[in-house]
Amino acid sequence: MITYLTQQLNLPLVKASNIVSNFNGTASLTPLIGALIADSFAGRFWTIIVGSIIYELGLISITTTALLKSLHPPPCPSLVDCKEASSFQLSTLYLSLLLLAIGLGGTRPCVMTYAADQLDMSKSGVESRSWNFFNWYYFSLGLARLAAVTIVVYIQDNVSWGWGLGIPTIAMAVAFMVFLSGSPLYKKVKPGGSPLVRVIQVIVAAIRKRKAVAPEDPSLLYQNQELDAAISVHGRLLHTTQFKWLDKAAVEKYGEATASSTPNLWKLATVHRVEELKSFLRLLPVWAAGILLVTANSHSGSFNTQQARTMDRRLSNSFQIPPASMSFFGIMTVIIGLVLYERLFVPFVRRFTRNSAGITYLQRMGIGLLFNILFSVVAALVEKKRRTVAENHNLVDNPKATVPISVFWLVPQLSLHGMSEVFMAVGQLEFLYDQSPESMRSIALGLFWIASSVGDYLGTLMVSLIHEYTGHKNNWLPDRNLNIGKLDYYYWLVTGIQAINFVYFVICAWCYTYKPLEEVMEEDSV
Predict the structure, then answer these.
(1) In degrees, to the nearest 5, what angle opens at C-alpha 161 toward C-alphas 155 and 167?
(2) What is the pTM for the complete model shown?
């Protein structure tokens, strides 16, 4: 996308990078809406169907912008005095990106949870398997990304953008038809009603009974297994001592509950429903640590691509690596890292921790945050080296010149970023899925993308402020010539942000209490 915006639509680097970041932010915001729709009434299957159709329309639209000359400006190979895309051309692009973002709102929070619905994800079921669902889900995503940054990017750079965007459009249509054809075989979990309404009901009931005294014995609080059956298929949440003021919602007053009728849930909540809200509140501080991680990484992909474009990318006299394909190394690290994590790391560490998963979700996330800090440090050092070489060869004022430094200098930072994903991204997905109430799992996965959304918007704000206030002469992030910038200063800044974020995460992880769950056994359902 950054290449398409800068090379085909002739947009300045910061403007193009902000469009990419804002799109990522919007595409990460819509999943919360899709999750609420899926968990409340539509179900995951139909949310995926509708989201896929809208996403396909977005792909068709953006492919059209590349095919029709009237929808993009004339080429500008010199990168000097380029005619930028017109307002009409940009509006067409924005419409395409909006359709893509809305479509992703339906698929992102539901695809993984729908796949998990087909498996036994109870604690006993997970421990009985020799493989980790989340690792292999992320592994399959890595294979798709690998195809995108090699085959598709090569076609975009060397054949045409029409084919480069058309192939993913065709691939998405084929994937949709394959998914649809398997419909009779899928296990479809019925939605249990609006989680948002249940949360509000618990809060309202607690406020109404704010003067009530909760019993010392939690078994005296209101419970109704029949009422909660649809939202506790795999297990009932047990009472916890955190957020005790919410327990007042489950204090039963005379006449509020009878065996023959459903109680007024705006006045009386079950322990399970109270614990749903508690579980959700507990995971929010840990989830928030992902926001600044995304903020630090929001523009790194765009900047890495622009760095690669200025470096020596020759593999032979006749072949150059496309700049966007450098992310191949990060993705390969993810793919290989996930296999090594599951087949070597987990069995080895399990000997010492006695944990079937090797390490806890929070430990995995913390290691991922450390890898990302190392990524930023190495990125700053490599950029300093690249710019020094440009200065030594008097290439600073020539944005089209190839700086005589191998593009493979970028491999270490890309690999470190890949290792961060192996630990942090997958660990966070596991954490949100396992620690959220089962009736809110689409919403929990929506939170994963909300962190990306907020982080991307904060990243856009940070980059815009840096570009605005670091001056014209010594701007850290210049519009078109990276050689006169100070990109390494940007990386040092995000390194500091991540260091602070890591300390915050450690404090949250130290204080976190895992949710207690009483699994429903077969005899319970007889």
Answers:
(1) 65
(2) 0.82
